[in-house]
Amino acid sequence: MAKPATNFQRKRALVIGINDYYYFNPLEYCVRDAQDFSKTLQDIGFEVTPVFNCNLKEFTQVLKVFLDRTRSTDLVLFYFAGHGKSYKYDNYLLLANYNPSQSKNESKNMAEGIISIESIMKQMAHKNWCATIFIFDCCRKHLNSLEENNQQRFLSMKGTPKTLIAYSNCAGAVIRSETGNDKNGYLMGNLLKHIIKTNVEIQDILRDVAQDLRKQTSELKRLYHNSEFNQKIFLVTTEDQDPIVKPMNASCVMNTPRGLPGADQPVGKNKELERSTNVDANGDRTPKRTEEHIVSPRLAEKDKSVAAGSQVSNARSQEALSSSLSIDHVPDQVRTLNSYPSETFGVEEHISKEIRDLFQHLKYELPIMNKRGPMSGNCVSETDQMENFLKQNFGFNNTNDYIVSGVRSFQIRRFLSDVDSRQIIYFPREHQSAFTMTVSEIKKWQSSYAVYADQNVRGMDKAFLQKALRGKSGDGDEAFRMKFVVRISDCPILMKFDARILRRSLGEQWPHLIKLVSVTGVDFAGRKHDVNDVTTYIKNWQEVFELDPKTGKPAVFHGRDFYPVRHHPQAMLDEERLLRDLARMVRLRLQACDQEGVEIVVETGIGLGVFAGKHIGIDGQVRRLSAIAIRHVVQNYSTTFKNIRAIVLALPIFTGIRDGRRLPDTYDYFVAEFRMSQYSGHIPVLIIDQDMHELTVAIGLRGYRVSQLNPADSHGVFGEYWQNHGPAVEEKLALTTVGLLVQHHLINPAVLDENRYHII
């Protein structure tokens, strides 16, 4: 029986995959390769730290923590999938922030986003492990730079003692395609087949991989390896059940915040799904709340854990948040396999296996959200793409008129009513990877448009709604009225927030299962249109903002903005009023979803980004109250909903780190509230650090009628600022869905049809 000659006690791996390069052509299969390799290594007894799409700073910090956690008795494997290159006499790995300039002076480009392989090897050599294996899976595609092809290949490498190096190179020009099977890169596709072999020495495995690689690529792509091992190394033996080797779960990666979901959880089935999370961060039980607690005038006296202005609530929230945010000094933006935080609540015995399985799928099996993709900031090309799509298919062109100040109007010369229903439309253009739809389908989505409004709001009638949905609502009272209006329609997603087109063939039904819910959140950004948000909910607004001496209201600058006084006092929220109104808004939109047959509701933080009032110091309070409002409605009204079976809160974490602790984000406020409240509602809730589109499509593909939230501007025009290339969610919804076709009044006549308005 073959046995490893080297007496290592653990097998550890650092696995890097980079698809998304900020400044030049991305790759397609590196992240998938890293994910699949991580899982395979875990299956054969490795403790794996997978990291995706990291920049140089993040990689350096991850590497340091990884090195600190190793022992001299370890076997260590380092795998990198991404761009690589040679320069002068060394080989380099390119991290996500590498920026090749348009000049050929490469020494100017070497300061950032690039690291030499030699420097990595030197850091690892100091650890003196039993054995070290390096696999560099590069040379996948041409860099599209001014460099010569031979600079985009690796020079010959030689390792230190007890080291094996394997690296891919191409003969001549870099190979045109990364993959032969549309799943993995050429090297990884073969490595996955061979590395699991039992009682086969690692060098023999690599020889088999190299042979298959040459055959598949007609000798264009080759694997080179050399070994400084003085003994044979077997990664898998028939005795690998030795208890000394204990694989680490993929979710137990170094950058998962302690106390947050994802830490110390198995990749497979999660026993925590068998019960709700009814304990706060300190293990304390809290009394259940009743409906009257949120509607009573003496809210603060009856329920200190919910009440506006309650010191107990603030203290416990901070305690729960504090315990959730401890982190191992690793950047939060370095996302790793299955490590995106998530937490479930209310998953009791009565919850069906279908919903349990759905939550499992959403928690562990989706790609990590790309938070630095093109849709995270300036998205000129995506806007141009949508304009070209509208122009080619519907005769779109801008006009010199404006719907509201700063929002250009446009014309559509070819309306759907005049087009043959059988005509096929492609987004963004006719291509095998396009999203394909028929005119008949678009008309069906348009005809699903409906409006739900709160009948208890003064001045709410159908005439007002029609006025507002044309962008004609006035500042102040009318804009405030729109907070209590929900617009909803079928609305397929065309591409995810990473700007990758969702390929759809005719006949696929998942696009028909998605509803877009457009609502207006409370806006504390300080805009003229939403002046009532300031004067209604901020008690001392006269002391906080510059005032107009004529009107006594906040002074307007640049035609739209309010400015805080330089040394203003702390803004004082009317928490009881805000909480009550937020709860009304939540209940209204859930009622609308329920009446439209929605089974799974996907929500995101409404007005909780720049709109939460960070500039006047109230953002934490607004987030906390928003969490309380949602928790209260779901807990106390869940039995009134006939169709809603689960709620998913998509709350991506974007905050950075200070003093070794991640700063609180909306995600943390919601988790803390559901923990503290001992949530026991009839409807299960999943809170997750994930892309809203990713979640919605995954749910639709499983056959559920699903809704997703669009935090829209209070003017009432869908995608109001969609052509300004900005980062707001509403603009992104206009560029990534058919929302402009189904919810914009200039395209869909159903938007202004009063028969579709329901005042409830």
From TrEMBL:
**Which residues lie in Basic and acidic residues bias regions?**
269-293
Q: Where is this region: Disordered?
A: 258-293
Source organism's superkingdom? Eukaryota
Q: Which GO terms describe its molecular function?
A: cysteine-type endopeptidase activity
Cited PROSITE patterns? CASPASE_P20
Entry-linked Pfam families:
Peptidase_C14 (PF00656)
Where does this protein have coiled-coil stretches?
none
The Caspase family p20 domain extends over 9-84
Q: Which InterPro entries match?
A: Caspase-like_dom_sf, Caspase-related_regulators, Pept_C14_caspase, Pept_C14_p20
Give GO BP annotations, semicolon-separated.
proteolysis
Task: Name the chain's protein.
Answer: Caspase family p20 domain-containing protein
Lineage runs:
Eukaryota, Metazoa, Spiralia, Gnathifera, Rotifera
